[in-house]
Batch of 2 targets.
Target 1
Amino acid sequence: MQKVKLPISVDPVRAAQKRLELEALIPKELLSRLAESTISIQSDINTVFSFDIDRQKLRIFHGKANVAVELICQRCNEPMLYQCEAEFTYCPVHNQEQENKLPDAYEPIYYDENGEVNLHQVVEDELILTLPQIAKHAIEDCQQSEYEISFGEIDEEEQRPNPFDALAKLKHK
Ligand SMILES: [Zn+2]
């Protein structure tokens, strides 16, 4: 079955009243910021949205988005596939006061001048947030795995930015 394209913006109040459910694609060409943050986006982006009114009468929407992207492995400088999986719940707000009162479970999003919210922007922001700070192959898939195994795995938390990353980037230009 061919999926529909996700509308760029929706009126979240009307969508919530209708309990709108959307299952739709975003053409990958439209997400230029995600494209800039990766080597390539492997396919159009799958998204699912459901709009609802919660017990406090807040209009909210819940969504999921996923797509595979290519990143550069920071250990061996070869491309690697990375599966982005985002899940989020937003509550549209008009002002700071409403934003401050939101339950922690919800992310705030501002209505635009037409009373709509931009779903493409939400999906793109959420997918970018799923990207790892330091992309690395699984050890068994990495070109540098022998080196890495003989020197032991460095704890993610303690890892400092690698001074060779800058060199690696220059090399790829
Ligand atoms: Zn690697």
Note: The two ends are 41 Å apart (CA to CA).
Target 2
Amino acid sequence: MATVRIRNVGTVGGNICFAEPASDPPAAFLVLEARMKAKKTDGSERVIPASAFWTDYYETALEEDELLTEIEIDPLPGEFRTAYTRFTTRSKEDKPCVSISVAIAAESDRKTCAGARIGLGGVEAVFRRLSAVEDGLKGKELSKEVIGEVLSQTLDDLEPISDIRASDAYRRQVTPVLVRRTIEKALLLE
Ligand SMILES: Cc1cc2nc3c(=O)[nH]c(=O)nc-3n(C[C@H](O)[C@H](O)[C@H](O)COP(=O)(O)OP(=O)(O)OC[C@H]3O[C@@H](n4cnc5c(N)ncnc54)[C@H](O)[C@@H]3O)c2cc1C
């Protein structure tokens, strides 16, 4: 993400606390089910799951006297395959207009979906998991046709934003395509 200069100076903690919809890391942290540790000025600590960390446009669950001090991530179970897509509409170095993080696992038959985690960024005001798509994929055949069918039935709840990177209509149109491509990339489907 970003340029070498930004990566040398910006921190991942600053990135997620900024809560800008056009950020790369949050979609991946949602999929990794990261835990954000916050510390208050009185020394007390609490853990905020990634799913509850981003609350609104540029807003987080952090209180005024809280600092993010740690991000904890457990390794994904070995059967998961992962992929990430950052789709930019201006330059390659721009922040993403759509960012999609996928972790998907197959049953031992290597054809049936055992579980999927899909994080969405850039499209809506708040980062979130695509739970309806995840639920729709579970137990289904991991073929291009079936994945396409599930997406056509489970992505109608998108509430895209309009900004300098794209209109809401544009985001609504490209998001299902990019989600499908990211799932296919994770599964190495030709
Ligand atoms: C030219 C440019 C290109 C960029 N491209 C990308 C990109 O492609 N992808 C992408 O994801 N991002 C991109 N960024 C954003 C960049 O990743 C963030 O600006 C950076 O990570 C912020 O980190 P920082 O440590 O500088 O935070 P700061 O800018 O210092 O802080 C950001 C906000 O978070 C608060 N904050 C910081 N740390 C904490 C903490 N520990 N606890 C509580 N609050 C805290 C600050 O008070 C502030 O409100 C880009 C930025 C620039 C300028």
Note: The radius of gyration is 17 Å.
